[in-house]
Amino acid sequence: MDSEFPDKECGDGRRAFQPSRRTLLRAALAGGVVTTLGGNRLHASAASALGGGRSPSASNVIILGLGGGVRFSETFGDPKHRLIPETWGRIRPRGTYFSNIWGKGALDHSVGNKNLLSGRWSKSQADVAYRASLFEHYRKATGADARSTWCAVWGSDVGNHFLGFSLQPGYGPDYGALMSHPRSLMEWWKKAKKEGMKVEEPDIPFVGYTRRVFPYAPADEEIREDLYDLISDTPEFQDTGLDLGQDATLWEQDMNRLLIRRVLTRYQPRVVFLGFCSMDVAHESGFDEYCDGIAAADRAIAEVFDVVESEPFYKGKTMVVITPEIGRDQGDDPAQPVSYQQHTGDTEETNHRHGMVVYGPGIKAGHQVDRRVEQIDILPTIARVLDFPIQGVDGKVLEDALV
Ligand SMILES: [Zn+2]
Predict the structure, then answer these.
(1) How far is the CA of 69 from the centre of ligand 1 (A)?
(2) Separation of 241 CA from ligand 1 center, angstroms?
(3) Which domains, ranges and CATH numbers included, belong to the chain?
(4) How far is the CA of 145 from the centre of ligand 1 (A)?
(5) Distance (Å) from CA 109 to ligand 1 centroid
(6) How would you classify the pairing of strands 353-359 and 96-102?
(7) Residue 303 CB burial class (10 angstroms; 0-12, 13-18, ≥19)
């Protein structure tokens, strides 16, 4: 709570963030893309597939992950919260703020997210593959179909593909989420454009598992076709993203924003994970770009917040969780912007300590919890709020946030 970061190294989060190479993408998201959302391809089956007998309160959850590594000191721990004005100023007062939530395990991109999605610690990406996800727990307990769950991952780490499902016995791909992975989806779109919609998809072996479980595009033909049209209508995305260096993470984030807006407004999944990753430009960039990435993620979170607050399917019925997956190195001198570039220091608090905002029905508003809690507590808390049973989970329900 009392951490500082130097003004001279990090810009004001309110200033304009307009990297020239991303202007087209942003313009598309602000204008052209949105106009396509009111299109005429709302399929009757998509609109009705999720109907069920659940209570109208706390019937959905959307997890917004600050992905790729971000420190407490530049986000929740900044006394002025300059880079997360939306999350802090507009969203936090509506819910409960946890000032002291900790991760554990390997400092790889998928690990922290799987901690919070599985309620169990993973020490490696191999562990990530064998921890049943929120989506699997939810679908197994409720009988909900695949369209009820959506996992928007980013990055090329294979572990990220195991956020939406696992290889844990008794769970697995049959209970997994529909997934979007920007780079894979774009590769699929390019092939589909040339060869038709029946694209031959590759087997990707991982930890001895070679089943075709990493689809290029969501494993739902109707949604595939819809996303094909979406990308076709968005030329700004079509020739970028696969070879952009550090900008790949920003492209991935913008692509995820495009996809998730489409998915939320048309298909209305009840259980959603969406990873924002713009701060991970830190690996290959200066401190200002890292800070810009945080501010960009905050604006993206605000966009989803606005969808939740404007769509009747979600408004007043949705639990929202906003928290990072992992941190970044502290180093010896915060004024020397080098340490922030990596997340390798397992003993450093800055890699493991985070903040979290939770809001929605059943969650206290205007409340703060300062005791230490853990990432693995998130899944049990979601299960309590949405009222479905879970098994084999190590975390505890965050009772002090509940009404
Ligand atoms: Zn990273």
Answers:
(1) 5
(2) 17
(3) 58-401 (3.40.720.10)
(4) 33
(5) 6
(6) antiparallel
(7) middle
pLDDT digits (tens, 9 = 90+) for 101-127: 999 988 888 899 999 999 999 988 788
Ligand 1 centre to CA of 11 (Å) is: 21
CA dihedral 360, 386, 305, 80 (to 10 degrees): 50
Task: Give me ligand 1 centre to Cα 400, in Å.
Answer: 32
Query: pLDDT digit string (tens) for 329-343?
Result: 987 665 655 688 889
N residues, the chain: 403
| CB-neighbour burial class of residue 2 (10 A; exposed 0-12, middle 13-18, buried 19+) | exposed
What's the predicted TM-score (pTM) here?
A: 0.85
Calpha distance 42→1 (Å, rounded) = 46
Residue 161 CA to ligand 1 center (angstroms) comes to: 16
Number of H helices, E strands in the chain: 13, 9
Tokens of 321: 């969780």
